[in-house]
Every structure is written in C-alpha cells, then in structure tokens.
C-alpha cells in the first residue's frame, strides 16, 4: 500500500489498555476503504486505515501488559489515509522516525515515485502514548502519539512480535488477506464502496427505486383532459405499457404484458413516478391452522395473506397529486350516489397493476414486485400549521389482490439517457422507465 500527500478513533481488544507510555510493535495495517465519519460536527467521507499494535512490558503498577491467557494487549488506531502535513498519520510517522520528515520521494512528489510504502511499518518497534477518553459513559483508550524507542531500551533488546502479521490493502486485494482481519474490522471494510466493487457485492440502497403506477382507462376519463396533462408536456401514448415502453421503442419485445399493466395516460404515470418520494416492498404471511395427527401439534398453511402498501408523493403547489387520488377514490365510490363501481368491469375497472422496482447503484433492476389489481383505499390526513415551513407529502394506502415477483434484471435506459444527455433526452423515450 503506497500513500501520497494528499483524526482518529481507537478500538481496544478484550481489555482496556492503561494510560501512559508503552513499548509496542506494529503487527498489522488494515485498509478500511472509504468510510463515513464526523469532523467538527459535519458528516464526511474519506479513505481510512488502521494500524495494529501489540504492547510489551509492564504498566505503572508493575503488572504485565497481557491478557489472562498470556497474549499481549493490543490496540489499534484509525487514520485518514493521507500524508498531508496536517494529517495525523504523517505526524505520527514523523515522530516515530525521530522527527525526520518525509522526503519528496516518499510523498509521491517526484515523477515515477508511488509514494510512502506504509507496509514497512510492520515489525517496527515504537513507544505509544495512550490516553483515555469517555464517551456515552464508556471509557476508550486512544493513541495520542507515537515516538522512537529510546536507545537505552534498544540496547537491552526488543521483544519479538507475538501476533501473526496482518496486512490488507485494496491496492492488492486478496480474500486471503481479508480473512486474516478480525471480524469486527471485516464488518467495517464490507461497508466501503471499494470492497463492494472488488467483490461485486454492493449493498442495496432503499433510495434507488421507482414506482410505476399505470392509470386505468376508466380513471383517466376523469383526469385525461385536466390541467396536469397541459402542464407536464410529456409525450403520451394510450397503448404504452409503462414497464415495456423503452423495450417497445427499441424493438425489444419478448415479455408477455398484462393489459392492466398498461397505462391510459403515460405522461401522468411518468409524473407520479417522479413525485413518488417513498414506497415499500410489500410483505406477505401464510395463514396457518393447527393440525394434530399423532404427537405434537404442527401448523399447516392454508392461505397467503398480503399486507396493504403505502406510497408517499411530494405535492406540487397546485396540489395535483391530492386532486388525482381524490378523483380516483370518488370514481370508485361516488359520494353523490354511494353506488360502488364493479371493480373488474370493462367499462368501470378502477384497478391497476403497480410495479415497485429496486435498482442497484447504476440503473439495473435487481428486484421488482407487481401488485395485481391494486387500487387506492385510503388518503392520509395532511396537517396544516403556521409554524410548518416544509413540503406537503401525500400518503396513499393501496390494497391489492396479490403480488408477483419479477426477478430478471433489466436496465432503465431513460435514466441512463438523462444522465448522459440531459433531461430532454428522456423525453425522446415514451416513458423513460425500466426495461
């Protein structure tokens, strides 16, 4: 691992390291990748590493710095992976070297030089100055400084390393090296984007989603000529399947599409997808009955039960979203006649198939569910207050008959076109949704 010029927390192992100056030897260096941390009250992200030390000698009371099983106490120090003149890592390395600053070659300032090879610290003896700090009623040991071992101690002889060498770096990623790291540090490393990229195991983020809400033709009769469509100016297509629009545009059919997954108002469906701030992948349970044939009672499933789902939309200054779902529910159960519409009639069908799509870090669909025969059954109250200066959010509860899972991973070319060519590019595609 080479570091160029470009804060710290310490963890203890099993037993709190006492304060004072202790003879130590570096036995490991662990590249943590990019980690989140707080600096002066602000959340930041930066590349981090940890130096691992084992302690030798005795504490101030003459007790050996060992665990109950005889192993030496260990302490580790986290650093920002930087050799800037103000960086803690550089300050400790310089003091470790007896005040000798890093050369331009070691700082990577000379063309053709890769920077300081920090791997050379493993096996080096030093004196650690340890201090204690208290946070949330817990006491932590912190490495406050690292200095050279005094000559008088060196003349008496320095102890050998007890622990096996630990060295892990993303510059030369190896799972064998990773497996030598403690489980606690492994969990930290696995959160870094470098690890996720190296192992192709990126963590899915709940913010990478899209909701496709087709508008049934019957409902579109109430909103098709509304102000919404005039303002949006998105291309509209009555025959477009929201999830297949780009595939059809590119001549990539191949999947069977249910007619109730199609929208009668593509621009309105696109608008709702953009305004949907929150959604949830629905759950289900199996209803069971207790059965006893011989011996203990056991449960036998007899029915699948699906939970209602809630979608949350940001409201514009014209309250289009609230008006739309008010009209939708009014179409289901008119307040003037109280005559419920038949849900699956060809002329009064108010149900639709909603898709909730989870994407990876790019635009690949990694999981999706399609809610079959979904319709709104509840509009949550929206509070009003003179002291509130935020935005209106509208939560709509949907009921549905069942859902099916869509496993095949496709790409959202509308998002890709927007990222590459700007927002105007997405309008060249009928919906700009997943394919």
How is the topology of this model organized?
Elements: E1 2-3, E2 10-12, E3 20-39, E4 42-56, E5 74-80, H1 88-96, E6 116-117, E7 125-135, E8 138-147, H2 151-156, E9 166-168, H3 175-179, H4 183-190, H5 193-199, E10 209-212, H6 217-223, H7 227-232, H8 245-249, H9 266-275, E11 276-278, E12 284-291, E13 298-306, E14 309-314, H10 320-332, E15 352-359, E16 365-379, E17 393-399, E18 402-406, H11 413-421, H12 423-426
Parallel strand pairs: 3-9
Antiparallel strand pairs: 1-6, 2-5, 3-4, 3-7, 4-5, 7-8, 10-15, 11-14, 12-13, 14-17, 15-16, 16-17, 16-18
State the secondary-structure class: alpha+beta
- Distance between termini? 42 Å
Count every helix, treating DSSP H or I runs of 4 or more residues as helices: 12
Strand content: 25-35%
Q: Give the beta-strand count.
A: 18
What does the radius of gyration come to? 31 Å
Q: What general outline do the C-alpha atoms trace?
A: elongated
- Unreliable stretches (pLDDT < 50, length at least 5) are 6-13, 226-256, 416-435
Averaged pLDDT: 81
| Major sheet characteristics | 7 strands, mixed
Order of helices and strands: EEEEEHEEEHEHHHEHHHHEEEEHEEEEHH
Percent helix, as a range, is 10-25%
Count of distinct structural domains: 2
